[in-house]
Amino acid sequence: MSAAVLERLVEEAGGRLRIDIPIPPTGSGDLIKKLPELLRLAPNVPVLLLTDLDRKECAPGLIGEWLGHRVKPDGMLFRVAVREVEAWLLADVENFANFARIPLAKLPETPEDLDDPKQTLLNLVKRYSPSSLKRELVADYGHGPRQGLAYNERLSQFVHVCWNLEEASMRADSLARTRRRIGELADQWGAPA
Question: Does residue 180 share a domain with residue 148?
């Protein structure tokens, strides 16, 4: 999901940035392992790193934990979705309601305040969405809804086709700040629009 979101955010920079080498992590552990290499690249090419806050207290604390004593180069944009990137999707309430056929009033007004946005998304889809979308997004083995096999693919389609960044930014401050910083990075490193 984070890769699709970053692609969309880079598209918004109007061609001034591009993703040359996407790193498809299977979790934050992969990103932490690749961090030394990314830090070495960042003085020469812009590096965008996006991770979820999850259960951590605050984004600066998570970034400090990951970096340790290392200095973040100017060319690295390290952003943290509060609490998870799914909060950013839920923040576009009208389009997500239409996409998943969830009553608008059931979507959270402040998705970044949720303890587990991904679980909230799954619960809403399980309860309200058509069966075809449920089968793609949700798997339930008796312990509550979990991510289905087509979860990333279908939500990536939503991100690229339906997601309104302006609307979502009004309800997700960490998204608004990420958009602003990507714009600044594009101004600094990118080709003219």
Answer: no
Could you tell me if 36 and 96 lie in one domain? no
Q: Would you state the pLDDT for residue 152? A: 95
| pLDDT value of position 23 | 79
Q: Are residues 73 and 53 in the same domain?
A: yes
Q: What is the pLDDT of residue 130?
A: 98
What is the model's pTM? 0.94
The 3-state secondary structure of the chain reads CHHHHHHHHHHCCCCCCCCCCCCCCCCHHHHHHHHHHHHHHCCCCCEEEEEECCCCCCHHHHHHHHHCCCCCCCCEEEEEECCCHHHHHHCCHHHHHHHHCCCHHHCCCCHHHCCCHHHHHHHHHHHHCCHHHHHHHEEECCCCEEECCCHHHHHHHHHHHCCCHHHHHHHCHHHHHHHHHHHHHHHHHCCCC
Range of the domain at 139: 87-168
The domain total for the chain is: 2
